[in-house]
Amino acid sequence: MRPDPEAKLAALGLTLPTPPKPVAAYIPCRRSGSLLFVSGQIPMKDGTLMAQGAVPGKVSPEVAKQCARQCVLNALAVAKAELGSLATIKQVVRLGVFVCSEPGFHGQPQVANGASELLVEVFGDAGRHARAAVGSIDLPLGAPVEVEFLFEVE
Amino acid sequence: MRPDPEAKLAALGLTLPTPPKPVAAYIPCRRSGSLLFVSGQIPMKDGTLMAQGAVPGKVSPEVAKQCARQCVLNALAVAKAELGSLATIKQVVRLGVFVCSEPGFHGQPQVANGASELLVEVFGDAGRHARAAVGSIDLPLGAPVEVEFLFEVE
Amino acid sequence: MRPDPEAKLAALGLTLPTPPKPVAAYIPCRRSGSLLFVSGQIPMKDGTLMAQGAVPGKVSPEVAKQCARQCVLNALAVAKAELGSLATIKQVVRLGVFVCSEPGFHGQPQVANGASELLVEVFGDAGRHARAAVGSIDLPLGAPVEVEFLFEVE
Asked: What HEC string does C77-108 produce?
């Protein structure tokens, strides 16, 4: 039996933040059929960015990995606001992970694992997903990481 | 009742360009079921790029925002050529926005709003969408912006 | 009648590599309905990267194009392991192509054509696809190219 993702979050001592409000013409997520596309999330926590700048000079890979994990919490908050319950997520389909990188930094996958591993902790095998992790010269607000999500929902 | 997107374009004084021809092995769009994926569009207008280079040094954020708007017109031209009528677009699902950025430029969302806002002007609430906006070190032909689109169609 | 993609690969003298094993919490591909999302592939060949670094200084555009072609072989190996046969691929839907670029390199489309052209060689018209090709400041392991794939399957 599939783990209850919200119980799992609680067992991990994690609480979902208040979902971000739409800040522009775009919205936090859009559903099409059984696919839920969640907009690119940056590591906002309690109203501020957890870290700012490129990896590894200004932000260490380990901190960036924690930032990727925070992006998941923000995305799950968006999904829960849309769906009512995270239990309606059948599987995580795809992640697009952008890591603000200095030239010569090749560790985007290790940073992205912060997001991927938390999804597996929360959803079990249904949390495994396809992924593209790439470097970016700069990201909104100077975020070290941005992650977008595609979920399959009931 | 949903606004007629082509009437709305006309009311805005906007005309769709001639859709770009396939220039390589890839094509301007591909449909799979109710999803229409439109290839990354750059701000070509009357056969030339509206601007060239990175934001904000060579291209100002305001000009880049206008470029993002032009990418929408180019994408709608592609969609109309494929679908016959833009009225068959049920909703805009997702945008991927790449902004050619100098290090230290964090304003990708403001640039991307040029695309997002025009879609809402044309399609109303159905034009709202999920979005990832990121910086890119360089883009095809030196474009300041590239935008790819996912539409849900009838 | 549609060409048999595996016979076509053989006629081109191409053999699929052993598909990569999951190296982290993410997996090589995830299916949702008729859509198969394949994770970002880098040009690994016989266990090593074919080239490393940015285009065009460290890696020539021509070599990068060959790398993009290798990404296709790696993705098809993933797809075959998932599907049993490549003949169940109905069409190629979308490619996301990231080219590790020095500032001032605008030839991402030519590099990406290495992937697009091979897909058309193998699948015929069903191999044509929507595409976004952009520059990236750096990629996993220092790869010059990363390509992610979306296939429609039976």
From this structure: HHHHHHHCCHHHEEEEEEEEEEEEECCCCCCH
Domains, chain C, in order of start with CATH, read 5-13+34-153 (3.30.1330.40)
CA A94 to chain centre: 11
Let me know: does B73 contact B97? Beta carbons within 8 Å: no
Q: Which chains have at least 3 CB atom pairs separated by less than 8 Å from chain C?
A: A, B
* Global model pTM greater than 0.95: yes
A82-120 pLDDT, tens digit each: 999 999 999 999 999 999 999 999 999 999 999 999 999
* Beta-carbon contacts of residue A115 (< 8 Å; ≥ 6 apart): A68, A69, A71, A72, A95, A97, A147
pLDDT string in tens for chain A (154-residue length)? 567 999 999 999 999 998 876 566 789 999 999 999 999 999 999 989 999 999 999 999 999 999 999 999 999 999 999 999 999 999 999 999 999 999 999 999 999 999 999 999 999 999 999 999 999 999 999 999 999 999 999 9
**Cβ <8 Å between C32 and A116:** no
**Are B37 and C94 a contacting pair at CB < 8 A?**
yes
User: Among all residues of chain C, which has the CA nearest to that of B31?
Assistant: C93
Per DSSP (E only), the strands in A15-109 are 29-32, 35-41, 44-45, 48-49, 89-100
